[in-house]
Amino acid sequence: MEQVSHASNVVFVLLGAIMVLAMHAGFAFLEVGTVRKKNQVNALVKILTDFCVSAIAYFFIGYTIAYGANFFASAEVLSQKSGYEMVKFFFLLTFAAAIPAIISGGIAERAKFHPQSVATLMLVGFVYPFFEGIAWNDNFGLQPWLEATFGAKFHDFAGSVVVHAMGGWIALPAVLLLGARRGRYTREGHVAAHPPSNIPFLALGAWILTVGWFGFNVMSAQTLDKVSGLVALNSLMAMVGGTLAAMVLGKNDPGFIHNGPLAGLVAVCAGSDLMHPVGALLTGLIAGGLFVRLFTITQNRWKIDDVLGVWPLHGLCGVWGGLAAGIFGSQALGGMGGVSLAAQLIGTVAAVVVALAGGTIVYGTLKTLVGIRLDAEEEFEGADLTIHKITATPDRETHW
């Protein structure tokens, strides 16, 4: 029976890993549909390449930093418990690789290719697992201190803060160091619109992410005996709330509507195992509204050219999710309890500090040493032709 239990857990976590791996196709198509046509190939290539670089970085460095474990034992040892530790690594890798996938949308259309691969190696190898280990493995004593001081640890069931806020806040200094796309803002203060190039691809990306998210959240239980239908229903309600809020505040804009479910799902990750479904719905509604308002402000008022709005979507909605777990997870509001708003605030702020520092150091160093931005002519031609020597839809056919 013990062997059956191990095998069941392996299948459970493996299905989650596969669903989150599929989400990376969602990241890719969300970016493909948003960027201009001359940068669509680059979006696809970046997501796949960054995932593979992330796998190397996390396997050899990051997982050890986060959990103190490595895979340098024999295959016989590694395959114990039906190889559960292997699929657990695979599952957590798909989370870690979401960091560069998130950043990719913010720096799209003007970032150099290979320096970004180096950034991915550093971020997934060192920056992300540093805070991952603090939050999910009690490294450096922050979690025990929070529990002793406030009666509860910082709670992030599926990564509102550990994954999404980290990714969004790492992306912010990268976007600022790169600067806006050429022609995006004029000296007179006008904003040149760059509308999405392909709404169907954008929608496809959003749908793939939305479906995969139920593996992202539900399978975060990591063992079959801890699975909870509450997580699934709360994810659904937050997704619905985010979509409807984005529809209303975004005035039926398809870009906002298809990012709305993502905003709700980002925010509910942390407390999806604690909240009442009504609390999850409110969490999603607030997240959808937050994304629409802050995306508009950052683009039009603050002149921050965050192409896919990854800072408001992942960074701010992730922060809101960390706080929402402390609010709607309380028993007074119908939640499961066992959570402290003060601990949530401190843990969330710690993540933001680590992300900002890590993003600034990594991208600032690369900018100084090798440069991180395409030159004016390369950006005008587009990343597809400049880097990959082909467009998404070549006009000229070859006749052999």
3D shape:
globular
Which stretches are low in confidence, meaning pLDDT under 50 for 5 or more residues running?
none
Percentage of residues in strands: under 5%
Radius of gyration in whole Å, from Cα? 21 Å
Distance between the termini: 62 Å
Largest sheet: none
- Please tell me the overall pLDDT: 96
Give the count of helical stretches: 16
Find the structural class using helix and strand composition: mainly alpha
The count of DSSP E runs of length 2 or more, i.e. the number of strands, is 0
Please estimate the helix content: over 70%
Question: Secondary structure elements and their pairing?
Answer:
Elements lengths: L1 H33 L5 H28 L7 H4 L5 H13 L1 H9 L6 H24 L5 H9 L9 H19 L20 H20 L10 H21 L4 H15 L8 H25 L8 H19 L12 H29 L6 H6 L1 H6 L12
Helix pairs in contact: 1-2, 1-4, 1-5, 1-9, 2-4, 2-5, 2-6, 5-8, 6-8, 6-14, 7-14, 8-13, 8-14, 9-10, 9-11, 10-11, 10-12, 11-12, 11-13, 12-13, 13-14
Task: Tell me what you see in this structure.
The protein has 400 residues and is mainly alpha-helical. Helix content is 70%, strand content 0%. The chain has 16 helices and no strands. It has helices at 2-34, 40-67, 75-78, 84-96, 98-106, 113-136, 142-150, 160-178, 199-218, 229-249, 254-268, 277-301, 310-328, 341-369, 376-381, 383-388. The protein starts with a helix and ends in a 12-residue tail after the last helix. The relative contact order is 0.16.
What would you say about this model in short?
The protein is an all-alpha fold and 400 residues long. Helices cover 70% and strands 0% of the residues. The longest helix is centred in the N-terminal third of the chain and has 33 residues, at 2-34.
